[in-house]
Structure formats: C-alpha cells, structure tokens
Specification:
single chain; about 575 residues; alpha/beta; Immunoglobulin-like; TIM Barrel; 2 domains; 12 helices; binds beta-D-glucopyranose
Length: about 575
C-alpha cells in the first residue's frame, strides 16, 4: 500500500555539493544547491565549518553570514524563487588556518539536505524518522557535481578565442577594419571600475567582467583573455599608463580589485571557458632595470621594490586566480629589447620566480609568460642573426643591437622559457607573444640583408623592425599588425596573441587631463628627443594620439596598411 502523503513529505528536499580550491590560508568555495523538493520562495542554506579557523569572506549569489563556526547563506532578491528540480550556484572566498575540511552536513530552510536526518525533528503530526518516506534518498555527493578538470597544458589549443564586441565595433568603424575585427583581443581590466564596466570612460568599454564572460558563453568561445593591470604604483618607470592606486595601496588592490575579479571568474557558470589572465604588464622587469641607481631608475620603482607592492601583488593575483580550476595565468616578461642583455636576463627570471611564490602562491599557479605585450619588437628578424659578423665585428656591436644577445622575440621567448624553468618554474610552461603590432610590413620592409660594408649598415639595411631605437614603445610610426592570433605556432610557444587591442593608443602625444590616472609620457611626443632608456633618440611616436587605451583610428589604419602577413 502506498504511504499517505504527509505534510512532512511535501517539504524541502535538497542536494548540496560543496567544493573548494585551496591555497595556503585561503580558498574559493563553490556550492550548488539542487532543489529536489517543492518549489521554494526564499531560502537559507546553513552549514557548520568543522574548523574554528575557517572564515567566509566575500561571497556571491547569496547574502553570506557567519557566527562562530555557523555559516548561513540567504537568497538574494533575484534568486529566491527556485523551481522544483532547479539548481542554484553560489560561492564565496574564504580563509583558513590549520586546515580547511569541508562541512559534512547542509540544511536548507532548516531541513537537512543530501538525504540526511533533520536536526530539528519536524513538529506535531510527523511520522517518526524511521517511517518517514524519504522518497528517493539520493546518495550524498561528497565532491563537487562538476569539478573543474585538471588544467589543460595549453588553453589556446584546439579552441576558438573570444572576440570582444567593443573592440570589434571600433575596428569596424575604420575602413577595411572588418578584415581583422573577428580576431580575439584581450579585455584590459585597468582599474577597479572596469570590473563592472565604465560607460563614461574614454579608454574602457562599458562591459564589465561578467558581461564579457556571458558574451563569451554566447559566442561559444573556448577561451577568453583578461589583462590584470592595476598594481599599486603601476607603470613605475613611465607615465602614460600610471594607474589609480598609490604605491601603498596593496590592501586595496587585493580587496577591491583581485578579490572581486576572482569571485566572478570562479562562478561555476563559466567553468567550461578557459579564462586566461595576463598578469601585470612590465611590473616585475621594472623592479630590476629601473631601480637602485641604474640609468633608468625612478623613485616610484624604488618605492614599490622596497615596499614589496609588486612582488606581493603579483603573488596574490596568481594565488587567488590560479586557484580557480579553469583559470590560466601568464605573467608579463617584457621583451627582448629590455630583458635580452645578460645583466637582465637571469635576474629578471629570478624576480619572476620570487613573485610566483609570494603571498602564498606556488609555481603551479603559472601557466606561462607573455612577451612583447603592447610592444613592437619583431617576431623574427629574417635578414640577420645575432651570431653574424661583418668585417670581423659582431652584430651585437651594432648601434641597433647594442650588445643584446637577442634580436627578435621568438628567439628570446624560447630562450627565456628555458631560463625560467631553470629557476624553478614547471617544465611545461608555455610562452605567449603579443603580435598585435609587430608586423613591420608595408613598402619600407627590407626584402633582404643589408650591405656588408660595416655592422651598422648591415643591421640597419636588413632589419624589419623600423623603429628609431628599440627602446621606443609609444604609438610607433611605420608599425603593422603582426601574425594573427593562433595556437602552438612554434616549439615552446602556446600562442601568438593580440593582447594590446590594435588601434588603442599607448599614450597621448600631448598632456590630456583625464580621470583615469593616466599621465603624459614624453615618449609619446613625436617632438621629444629622448632619454637614457632610448639612447637619447627621437621617439618615433605618431602625432595627435589620445590617452592610453583610447581609440586612435589613424594608428589602426596604419597598422592595417603595414600588416605582415599582409591583409588581402
Ligand atoms: C592602457 C590601458 C588600456 C590598454 C589597452 C594600456 O596602455 O594603460 O588603459 O586598456 O593599454 O589599450
């Protein structure tokens, strides 16, 4: 005989899974609640932390609270109504000391989930627990229902990249832009406001992190790229990309910038997307080359070296973001025309390792490194090699090469990868090369080696990088789009990428007041005669440029014109 349906039966029934990604002292918890009972209108999840050192920090998709070891999560206004059979995803970032065991029991509106026994027996007429028809006591899922798989070796391999619709629209506003506008470019999170989107800013889009991730899901993209770029005292050796945080604002960087980004990226909704984070352009290299009485030293670089803001900030970003199963971190490693000298090569690799193990991070949070971000260094110099000699003189002695050991990005990236592995990084790390603006095609591109009259004539006649000096970096005249983004182009290289969205300015050619903390760097002024870092050369910057990050159509037109491979 069928048991009578009682009030106790027509109540809440739930399956809860709880999984964490842990790192020393911290974790991200993902919780899913499946409503296997009647429809709910308002809910509260409860559980008890087994250890007294476990704390809930910032949470999402619920109002989280903790008292002692008791934790509760109450619905937000928008997710209180839950249909029968529906699943909710919520989570939080937490901290722990000692150990981080999972709670063993969960309640929803006071009812124990996962087929357990109620803590508070139902009142009045309920049958005794032994006779309660438990309907279908589902075996309790002890782990997550959909654990993030182990990270893939190369997140770019075999999948399509996310096309940022905001960049695409800008590209298509310039004649011929539709030839390249479907390429994936990175989304720069260059200030706290960019996390939620900044409708009135001149250099950021209105879309925030969630908007981009949702759009990536809609596109069916396999990977999406973000640039994490907001360190305290950012861009310490230059002015064009100075940021909003002062050198002592590491706590704010963590709580108001990295934590919220991590919270969004950890949303299980995005678990099947490979989320790539490019970590803090130029920062760690600056600590070596632009500090301590070196010719390029600046007071700001000395300050952020002394107070540990960069090392600890990068370590924190790596730990927090790397803990998420489907997130891939690549740290910026500058470019050959900066790190290629042996006085910089090994010391910078050492500093990168220091950052990777700072703030509780480990090298496991590092998928690889990126070189040439937002720079113009040629991928390959086809017409001269660093080992060539002319009249008994080494190419290294030429004014252009200036004793560097590398003349292009590919050879540098592959060699630096080995150096990084020798410092303790995993031997499967991969390199990215930003090829957005290093094409150097067009009519000025040499078609063969230079004359053998002397080493300078040979190098200058044959080099495809037509900059006045390899230290020039702002809105370079004559540059073209480089290789289109693609995975596994060369051994050790995970992908060619377009991290700097082509057509976005590197900095204004004259001072322009703005509310983004962007300064005026004379390296962006075409009339400036240079400094120690560019051998007192002219800057080669295009005139009439807007502030960094703002759309610069004339530059985009030139990049297309000088693209290499050429556009058809
Ligand atoms: C700027 C950022 C901008 C990025 C991409 C950087 O130089 O500082 O504001 O988002 O370039 O264009």
């Amino acid at each position: 005989m069928a048991l009578p349906v009682t009030a106790a039966q027509a109540a809440t029934q739930c399956e809860v899974s709880y999984s964490t990604n842990d790192w020393p002292g911290g974790f991200t918890a993902s919780v899913t609640i499946k409503n296997v009972g009647d429809a709910l209108n308002g809910w509260t999840l409860g559980f008890t932390f087994p250890d007294s050192g476990q704390r809930v920090g910032q949470g999402w998709a619920a109002r989280w609270a903790q008292s002692g070891q008791e934790v509760s999560a109450q619905n937000e206004s928008w997710n209180g109504a839950v249909a029968s059979g529906a699943t909710l995803s919520l989570g939080f970032n937490g901290s722990w000391s000692g150990s981080n065991p999972k709670p063993t029991s969960f309640t929803l509106n006071g009812t124990v989930c996962n087929g357990g026994t109620p803590t508070t027996p139902p009142t009045s007429s309920s049958p005794s627990p032994t006779t309660t028809p438990t309907a279908s006591p589902t075996p309790s899922p002890t782990g997550p229902t959909t654990p993030p798989g182990p990270k893939v070796d190369n997140p770019y391999a075999g999948v399509r990249g996310y096309v940022n619709p905001e960049w695409k629209a800008k590209a298509e506003s310039v004649a011929g832009g539709n030839r390249v506008s479907n390429n994936p470019t990175a989304v720069w999170l260059d200030r706290i406001a960019a996390i939620n989107g900044t409708p009135d800013s001149s250099s950021n889009g209105a879309m925030g992190v969630r908007d981009h991730l949702d759009e990536a899901l809609r596109q069916g993209a396999g990977y999406i790229q973000f640039v994490i770029y907001n360190l305290p005292g950012r861009d310490c050796a230059a002015l064009a990309s100075n940021g909003e945080l002062g050198p002592n604002e590491l706590p704010k960087y963590k709580s108001d910038y990295i934590d919220p980004i991590a919270a969004i990226q950890a949303d299980p909704k995005y678990k099947d997307l490979r989320i790539v984070n490019i970590i803090e352009i130029d920062s760690i290299p600056n600590l070596h080359t632009n500090t301590g009485g070196s010719p390029g030293a600046t007071a700001m670089c000395d300050t952020v070296k002394a107070n540990g803001a960069y090392i600890n900030g990068v370590g924190y970003a790596l730990a927090k973001l790397g803990a998420i199963g489907n997130v891939y971190n690549y740290i910026d490693a500058a470019h050959h025309g900066w790190i290629g000298w042996d006085s910089n090569f090994s010391p910078v690799a050492t500093l990168l390792h220091q950052a990777a193990i700072a703030s509780g991070s480990t090298v496991d949070n590092v998928t690889g490194f990126i070189v040439n971000t937002a720079n113009y260094s040629a991928l390959k110099e086809p017409y001269f090699k660093v080992t060539d000699t002319v009249n008994g003189q080494m190419v290294r002695q030429s004014k252009w090469v200036d004793w560097n050991f590398y003349v292009d990005e590919l050879s540098f990236a592959q060699a630096f990868r080995q150096e990084l592995i020798s410092k303790g990084f995993r031997n499967n790390i991969g390199m990215l090369i930003d090829t957005s603006r290093n094409g150097w095609g067009g009519s000025a591109r040499p078609t063969g080696p230079g004359p053998m009259t002397n080493v300078d004539a040979y190098v200058n006649g044959g080099r495809i990088d037509r900059r006045i000096h390899a230290g020039n970096w702002c809105n370079q005249a004559g540059a073209g789009l480089g290789e289109r983004p693609r995975a596994n182009p060369e051994p050790g290289i995970d992908a060619y990428v377009w991290v700097k969205p082509p057509g976005e300015s590197d900095g204004s050619s004259t001072a322009i007041p703005n509310d983004e903390g962007k300064g005026f760097d004379r390296m962006c002024d075409p009339t400036y005669t240079g400094n120690a870092r560019n051998g007192y050369s002219m800057t080669g910057a295009l005139p009439n440029a807007p502030i960094s990050g703002a759309w610069f159509p004339a530059q985009f037109a030139q990049l297309m014109q000088n693209a290499y491979p050429a556009l058809s």
